[in-house]
Amino acid sequence: MKFISSSTDSALTLEQWQAARATATGPVALQIANDYDVELLADDLHRFSRIELQFPKWVDGRAYSQARLLRARLRFGGELRAVGEVLVDMLPLLARTGFTAVQLRAGESEAAAREALAFFPGHYQGDVGESRPWFLRAAVAAA
Amino acid sequence: MYSYTDFDRQFVHARAAQFRHQLERNLAGTLGDDEFRPLRLQNGWYVQRHAPMLRVAVPYGELSSRQLRQLARIAREHDRGFGHFTTRQNLQYNWIPLVDAADVMDLLAEVDMHGIQTSGNCIRNITSDAFAGIAPDEVVDPRPYAEILRQWSTLHPEFAFLPRKFKIAISGAREDRAAIGWHDIGLQLVRDAAGAVGFRVLVGGGMGRTPVIAQEINAFVPWQQILVYIEAIVRVYNQFGRRDNMYKARIKILVKAEGQRFFDAVNAEFGRILTLDEGGREHLIPAAELDRVAAHFVLPEGLAEAPARDIFEGAAPAYRRWLERNVHGHRLSGYRAVTLSLKRAGVPPGDANHGEMDAAADLADQYSHGELRVSHDQNLVLPWVREADLPELYAAAKANGFATPNIGLLTDMIACPGGDFCALANARSIPVAAAITERFDDLDALWDIGDIDLHISGCINSCGHHHSGHIGILGVDKDGAEWYQITLGGADGSTLSGPAQAGRVIGPSFAADEVPDVIEAIVATYRSERAAGERFIDTVRRLGVEPFKGPANAQRTLTGNAAVQAQ
Fold this sequence. Notes:
The complex is a heterodimer of chains A (143) and B (567). By secondary structure, chain A is α/β, with parallel strands linked by helices. Chain A has five helices and five strands; from the N terminus they run βαββαβαβαα.
């Protein structure tokens, strides 16, 4: 997980991207709202180096689904960055749904965030990093 | 019952360690109360009127005697000595100081227990039929599926912050004892014409401010596909459920608003997961995994069928009553399930003190292979009782106060902890329940009245399931005073109650002191109007609520006629 201290690198809004789409060259960073249907981006994904997903409130979990779909369904390979109200205890969820970078809310401790990633020996259901649920991994280990 | 693997055990200990880390940061001031709140909720910790409340998960209601003894120990050493069994088959403590919280989670982890997802806007602890695996009318044992679902839903990274809480119930019998129509997802195990097992899937049920009955979204999802199907439902809900108003955030509102479009979206998403997603098909349940889990739910060791006997032969009247109400049929010849009633005078419905928990654990060891169940109507069940042991068990249950022969009767009421404990409640439930229990203390009268579901909630959050009571009592707040709205004709979906539906309000709210008189008047009306052998709910269905209104309103001594005239 990459920790971004402050956003010096700007990202295009969806409107800006749509305006620039025909002429833009090189990789682009995009920021989208958490109610946007990410599957609509399918044809353009190869042009994005980074997609920023938003947490307007940390308890609004829509961006977890967006991230999971971008990775598991659309195979997006660039950076997925969590922005907005991003707190220490979200880290395990962010990591497992495919985020690779976070910009923590001001005042959040990066050290505590790293600690938050380290508690579990594994998980039951598959996720972006490990697509197999525990029952498949356990079966392989037992075989 | 399910026994934890090393991985399961490491997992709950890890969860306890994670919680300790969060609690310590909170107590040290580096994790603010607002940010700690959703985290503690997802471990079962609420902050209540007097102290935090801890809700411990009892997955699909199965409990071992060892676990119950540990729950007793926690009550004794960290609470004021008691716990409250809930309609969702969980156990709640009301007096544990928050500074003890992490230690209590460690004690729970010692016996493979936890509070994971017993609160918060996530997939909650999954409930089922208290008679799962033993009921004579069972089609498929729901417990292996409930356990697989428990594991899948535990700390699901995508669905930890849904718009609102999300409750799943599973039934595998012909009789619905899990009120599946009242859940966000209701699952009914069925067999198709070829004998293959699958789920009839209902979605969009819920109580609260807007009671809604779940609708069928799929008549048959093969069991192998159920995790993926539920993932599709929850993902559509996570994306499109309302987040602007917590009273409109449950999936029932989305299903009502979108109707067929919601169903189409779920079915399309289901197809896309299976065809497109990395990891999609890997969540199809392999037969080997079902077999592995199902192996935990075979018969307890040492249990052998015996010739059935006439348990009523020579039974004295009091014992006969207990046999009739508290002893239930069993799929095994020579065995019965026995309900230990937690509905007795002077004690809030569903409460048990530490001594009673220890006593129930002893009874389970002696008569039920160390297993118990928590029932949806807040009693304990011993699932493996030999018919030959019934007289002895009756005496032992009676000595411990568990033998009130009232299961299914009016005093076997469901009630939430209400305003005595709960910070959300508008009104108290416990004194109302106590007053009604006292009023109907005559067993002969109680038996003559027969089967009635009486449900009491202290507020519209409906933890006491007032909507589904044949008689429902809802605490409401008006100008800072406690009032009670009475409904008639609600149903949980059982054969006795009829298809799940919400009860109808009979008039303006009553004062607390009027409630026992009102209940008595309603019951008296039933007794005078009923046809021979007709049960309360059938009389209400036949006559409607009108004939009950007059006698009920005649009991107004405090609210007076102003309330009625204002109607």
